[in-house]
Each structure stands twice: as C-alpha cells, then as structure tokens.
Amino acid sequence: MASFTSPDEFEKAYSTLHATFATGITKSIQWRKWQLKQLWWMIDDNEDAFCDALHQDLHRHSFESRAVEIPSVKSGIIEMLDNLEKWAKGEAPPDPGFFFGTIGKAWIRKEPLGVALIIGAWNFPVATIFPPAVAAIAAGNCLMLKPSELSGATQNLLAELVPKYLDTSAITVVTGGPSETGFILEHKFNHIFYTGGSKVGRIIAGAAAKHLTPVVLELGGQAPAIVTKSADIDLTAKRLANTKLFNYGQVCLNVNHVFVDSTIHDEFVERTIYWMKQFSQDKTDGLPRIINERHFDRINRLLEGTKGKTVYGGSVDRSQKFIHPMIVTNVDVADSLISEELFAPILPIIKADVSAALSTIKPMPHPLALYIFSKSKAEIDYILDNTNSGGVTINDAMFHAGVPSAPFGGVGESGYGAFHGKYGFDAFSHDRTVVTMAGRWVESLLSWRYQPWDMKNVGKLPTTKATFKRGETMQDQLVGGSNWTDTNCPV
C-alpha cells in the first residue's frame, strides 16, 4: 500500500499546477494533443498491468476490464484528438442579432477553466478518472487526479505511471482517504469533477460552494427496470441477469430492482433464475467480489432485513467478501432491499403493473438510469412522459451510457452536469463571449444611444417582430396535432 500524499506534498503540487496554468502552456493545441497521445500510450503500454490491478481490487475478470473499462478511455481519447481543434476554435453565435451582425462581430471563445480536481470512484477506478481527465486536458486545463483509496492497487499504479507519461507540472496524482480528501477540498479549484455516492457528493458540493467552484457530480441512485406485459420475457430475463452480474452489481448504472407485470411475473422469475444459473453457476471463482468488508456488512444487513423470498442464490462468505448472485421475490417498496442503492449482485423483483410501478418511482429521487422493457410504443412513451432519470435504455440496460457523442449525467439526486465527447469538453471550458465593434462609420446609426434622451429617436431603435399571431390557441402549437414524443423519441 503506497503512502498517502502528505499536506506538504499536496501544497507543492497544488502550487505547481496553478503556476503552470498561469504560463499559458496548457492552452497550446499542440500540448493538449501530445498529452492525450501520451495518455493513450500509457494505457496501451500497460493494459495488462491495469487489468491485473483491477483484478486485485475487484477480483474482476480481465475480459470484463478489456471489454468495458479500458476501451472507454481509448475511444474517448481518439474522439478528442479528432475534434479538439474544431471544438477549441469556438464559434459565432447562431443568431448575433442586428447589432452584432451589422455593426460588430461576436465570437464565443472556448477557454479552459484553470486547475481541475477529478475524484474517481472505486468501482471503475480507471474509467472514472481518465475519461473526465481526457476532457479536461483537451479543454486546456491543469488537473489533479484523486483516485479512490479503496481500489488501492489501481491507485498505486496510477501514481506510478502518470509521472512517467504525462507533464507533471500540469497533471498530477494525489492519494489519500477521507481526511486527506477533506484537506484537499479546503483549497480552491476552478472545477471539480466527482464520481461516487450522493452522501460524499453533498460534501463535495458544499465544499465547492464556499469557493464558487463549478462541479460535475456523477452519482447514482436506485435505477429501476419496468417490465411490461408486452415485453419479450426470455430476452428481458437474460439481459437483466447478465446486467446484474456486471462488475458484480457494483455499478451506478446497474438495475437496482425490477417491477414486473403480474401477468408475466412467474414466467419472468423462472427465466431469470435460468439465465442467472447459466451466467454464475460453477463460475464463482471468475466472478468479482464486494470491494471491502464494510460494504459487505452493509449489504448483508439489507439481506438480513428483507421479508422477500430468495429464489436463487443466498450464500455469503465474509472472509472472501463474496455474496452469491441472488434473485429475491415477494418484495415490496418498504423492504430493506429497496431502502438504498444496493451496489450488489442481488435482484429484487416487485410485482407491479406500469401504473403501480410509476406511482412508486415518481416520488423517489431521480435515478441515474431507467430501464424499460416493452414492445409497445404507447407503453414506452407513457413511461417516459411520467418519469425522470439521467438516461434511459429501452429493452436492455446501461447502453445509453455508451453513446460517445451523447451527454451522460444525472438529474436531481443522481447528480448534475454531463460529459462524454463535446459535452465533456464543454464541461471543462468557459464560453467567453467577445464582441468587436465597428469604428466611426456606425456612429450615425447609433446616435440615438447617446444622452440626453429624445423621444423623437424612438423610431430609430431596433425592433423585434413576433413570428406568431394573436388569437392562436394552445392546440395550434402542436404541428399536425401530434405529441412531441411521436416525432422525437422513435422506438
């Protein structure tokens, strides 16, 4: 276990980052591209080492890390390299108006915010550090990376490799636990990006507010799945069982619990048991583990308090931090398994039709994700219209987070702010409006702006005309009488 960063070491790194940003070197497109390429080579050269560290921390199979976590970083780097110059150039406002289309020019500059702090999470210690770091570097910032101390092997690898590949005057790694993180948060940063739980998210938001520091919070929540009576039962069961085993349920996007229509409930449970057996039976040595004893004990308390019926799995082993994948039925919304985000390979199933499911979901905090399993467009539209979440995947789970050019983020208690692609670049950038006014030739056009005021010049003022008519009804706003979901959310 590497020693944590001392206060003196932190202060030195903190001062260095601010001094480096003041030089303007990170605003260089060449510097940004070089750091991104160096980051690519760091991942590519050490892929085996990263997979080994992830196995040490999470007992995760190398294939899972190579299929998900490593590619998410590499693809993000390539997208940034392909678009960096275009995004960094800035743009003209889409409608500059009379003044800045005629007597002046307006431009929106993309400028880095300064020194950014990125705090990663233990469940994906590579994918929660480097993708936001890629966006921060591309936007021209200096950055301090704080990996989770709970994933110690990966933390130590990052602390070892980053100085070997990246410009340490502008990009540095600090390590530590809660007390060290608290000390770090006493300092002013120009941006903070945090991935983790809502409890710590509130602490970070409060610390940032003292310095008026902008924050992106990628949190989580109890992401529900709704399985309607029209769903493909076997395919839904297969995909949900597989999703629940992904990183052993320790994913902010994972399905927390499932609402299943009573008419298909029994068949869905039967098929979910079948697929869970196929994916986990006699393969327990290859499955991940719960990150530590504290989280194991938390999950075990929830299991001890449930009134549900365990229809598959059930064995636990604290010495191995192992909880066998479980399916639990006869669960209601008051059950202990629904009291908080599980972050475990446990799938509670609640018998409820769409209406009952929505009546439960709507009063709850907005989750990071919602999953709808249905063949009916009317059902899907109804659920979308009556829920809120960070994102949605229909007839599968988590895939909305994999669209590289679409925003990924939460809403309400699942966080705020978004990243991925240009959204990440924008999150670490300041849109600075710059206007250049014309010279003396426009003075005759602008004579009305000089005091003393004279009402005879009212006719010279620029005017704005309405593009709509008096007498319109609310129904007139619907093009062709169609609801917006019919044209904007095809399924």
From TrEMBL:
Residues 8-434 form the Aldehyde dehydrogenase domain. Pfam families: Aldedh (PF00171). The keyword rRNA-binding does not apply. Gene3D superfamilies: Aldehyde Dehydrogenase, Chain A, domain 1, Aldehyde Dehydrogenase, Chain A, domain 2. Keywords: Carotenoid biosynthesis, Oxidoreductase. InterPro entries: Ald_DH/histidinol_DH, Ald_DH_C, Ald_DH_CS_CYS, Ald_DH_N, Aldehyde_DH_dom, Aldehyde_DH_NAD(P). The active site is at E218, C252. GO terms for cellular component: cytoplasm. Signal peptide: none annotated. PROSITE patterns: ALDEHYDE_DEHYDR_CYS (PS00070). Belongs to the aldehyde dehydrogenase family. This is Aldehyde dehydrogenase.
